[in-house]
Amino acid sequence: MNRTTLSLIAGVTALAAVTGFAALSAPDAPGTDTAAKAAAQLPVERTSLLCPAPSTSDLAETVYTSFTPVTKGTGSSGKAELREAGAESADAPADGEDKGQGEDGGKSGADQPAKPVLTPKEPGKPVTGDSSGGEAPALVGTADGRFAPGWTVQETTEVAAGTGRGLQGVNCTAPDTDFWFPGASTDAARTDYVHLTNPDDSAAVVDIELYGKDGALKSGVGEGITVPPHSSEPVLLSTLTGERQTNLTVHVNVRSGRVGAAVQALDDRLGGDWLAASADPSGSLVLPGIPKDATSVRLVALTPGDADADLKVRLTSPSGPITPAGHETVHVKGGMTTAVDLGDVTRGEAGSLVLTPTDRSVPVVAALRVVRGKGDKQETAFIPATRPVGTRATSADNSGKGSTLSLTAPGAAATVKVTASAGSEGGTPVSKTYTIKAGTTQDIEPPAPGGLEGTYALTVETVSGGPVYGARTLTASEGGVPAFTVQTLPDDRGTVAVPEADEDLSVLQK
């Protein structure tokens, strides 16, 4: 292998290591043209996902669904598995390449290797597992080979009663070093935890910063939190500050190592759900998939820097963009959390919120708190700003009813292909193409596999046109409460662009 090829592989691998999302090994094929005019899109060969502990309620019933879409060019080998945090794989790689499954993962794991919680048999077919009660642990997962590109794991929990009762759902996340969570709270009625899961062989050191309506909240105990190797730590927000604030933004900054992070927001009266991290700070944001029967929508936003942000607020409806009356713009002061109650902004139609700068662009993070129902029959979910669907995005854990797919094209019109996978217990995949008009949101009753048995996954692929943003809503009836949970559909980053070499350095080889 010449030096150009070695440098190219090292660069791509270093980039993947920085993002903490996936690792790519370029093939060492004879005659490989490293100076190709166009960058090659190659499937990732290893990825990691982390699932937080689902609930402390004895009444909790949790289902995990693991799915990998079929990806061209992956070969025939590989595997995916989820294990309890702290449990060591019996066949952990000796070279320590996968930090989540290394040699020194702790005595308890090394002495008693645990069986995987979930192990899919083939791409294109979901596999499910379940747990009951409040002792279910956090999970650490890895996938390689043909199971790595687009690997998605959904954690869905039903809680029959008590604080946070209703439906709670979260997509298990890749480890990273920086997370923003607008929409958290230390209000007396709320019990919010930040769950930190460390997949690696060394401890991670994390700072948790809280930003309220007047700026950063003073907290010494949020600094230098240690998350031991192969473990998960839930941190109760109210223990980090003595201030009670209804709307907070949580910033998780990892000093060393990497973690998976998610906020579990539980309300005494309004149920609860998981709050996933907002997309990276940006001047323009899209928050897709507000349910058409939402009775209350609250926008929570923060600009991380010192500069103020002025944002236009638009709702993309089935008929086109709408400016909410009385909420044409929102002013976000630098370093301060701003909350705006939009009421029943969708007025019975599908909708997505689009935020754009009125003048100069200032990076912002944002999320929506959405409520369905009335009186003592209300339930809450959260919609963070998200990345576009891009090449492909996947939603796991769908059934024959109770799933709604919401797609919005805030700019140019776009065409997408939606594929329903085979069911976990049987069924035939089905695909359907949809056109999303410019400036609109379309709620889709997703296609179901032929002869469906069990649960299935939905894969959304952009065929043509402008960027598309998406979300999937699951609904259920819990004693008259309109229980629901919403997961956004960002690009799965299942492939990596291998850049072309600017020059042939092989002449330097001696």
UniProtKB/TrEMBL annotation:
The keyword Signal applies. Residues 96-106 have a biased composition (Basic and acidic residues). Residues 1-22 form the signal peptide. It comes from the Bacteria. Residues 68-145 are annotated as: Disordered. The keyword Signal applies. This is Secreted protein. It holds the Pfam family DUF5719. Keywords: Signal. It comes from Streptomyces tuirus. InterPro entries: DUF5719.
